[in-house]
C-alpha cells in the first residue's frame, strides 16, 4: 500500500518548504562552523527535513520529537566525545544512548542518531563548540525547520489556490 496521503499541491509546497528551510539552516550553520564540517551537521538536518516535510503527520515528525530528539542526541554525542576517547566506540555508544533517552523523553526522531554521531566525529569546529553545539547549531537548525514546517502546515490548511 502506498504511503501517499498528501495532495500534489501539498507535496509541491512541502518540497519548496524543505528547500527553503534547509537553505536557511545551511546558511546559518555555515556562518557558525565555516565550511569544514558543514556536511556533517547538515546530514541530520536534511534527514529531519525529509521527515518533517515529507511525512508531516508521522509521530517522528512532530515538534517535540524534532527539537527534543536533536537536543537529547546532541547532548549525548558531546558527552560521549568527552568521556570515550575511541571515536568508533563513542559513536556507537552515542547512538544507543541517544535512542534510549529519546524513548525515555518521548521524543524519538531518527535523524537524532546522526546528530549524536556528528558531535563525536564532527571535527575541530564541532568539538570546539563543546556543549554549546546543542544550542548552536543544533537547536537553531531544529527551530528553523520547525518554523518553516509550521508555515507550510498553515499554508496547507488555508491554501489560497484551492480555497481549502
Describe this structure in words.
It is globular and about 50 Å long. 74% of the residues lie in helices and 0% in strands. Helix 3 packs antiparallel against helix 4. The C terminus is likely disordered. The longest helix has 26 residues. With 164 residues, it is mostly helical. It has one domain.
Fold topology:
Elements: H1 8-33, H2 38-54, H3 63-83, H4 87-104, H5 112-121, H6 124-129, H7 135-157
Helix pairs in contact: 1-2, 1-7, 2-5, 2-7, 3-4, 3-5, 3-7, 4-5
Q: Count all strands and give the number.
A: 0
Average pLDDT figure: 89
Count of individual helical segments: 7
Oligomer: single chain
Shape: globular
Low-confidence parts: 159-164
Radius of gyration: 16 Å
Distance between termini?
Answer: 26 Å
Task: Report the sheet-strand fraction.
Answer: under 5%
Keywords:
7 helices; mainly alpha; 164 residues
What's the short version?
It contains 7 helices and no strands. The protein is an all-alpha fold.
Amino acid at each position: 500500500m502506498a504511503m501517499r496521503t498528501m495532495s500534489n499541491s501539498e507535496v509541491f509546497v512541502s518540497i519548496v518548504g524543505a528547500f527553503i528551510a534547509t537553505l536557511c539552516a545551511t546558511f546559518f550553520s555555515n556562518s557558525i562552523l565555516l565550511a569544514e564540517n558543514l556536511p556533517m551537521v547538515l546530514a541530520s538536518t536534511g534527514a529531519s527535513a525529509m521527515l518533517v516535510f515529507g511525512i508531516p503527520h508521522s509521530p517522528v515528525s512532530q515538534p517535540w520529537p524534532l527539537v527534543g530528539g536533536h537536543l537529547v542526541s546532541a547532548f549525548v554525542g558531546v558527552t560521549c566525545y568527552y568521556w570515550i576517547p575511541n571515536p568508533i566506540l563513542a559513536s556507537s555508544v552515542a547512538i544507543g544512548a541517544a535512542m534510549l533517552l529519546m524513548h525515555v523523553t518521548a521524543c524519538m526522531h531518527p535523524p537524532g542518531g546522526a546528530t549524536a554521531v556528528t558531535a563525536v566525529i564532527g571535527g575541530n569546529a564541532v568539538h570546539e563548540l563543546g556543549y554549546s553545539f546543542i544550542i548552536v547549531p543544533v537547536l537553531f537548525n531544529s527551530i528553523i525547520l520547525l518554523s518553516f514546517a509550521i508555515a507550510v502546515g498553515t499554508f496547507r490548511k488555508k491554501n489560497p489556490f484551492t480555497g481549502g
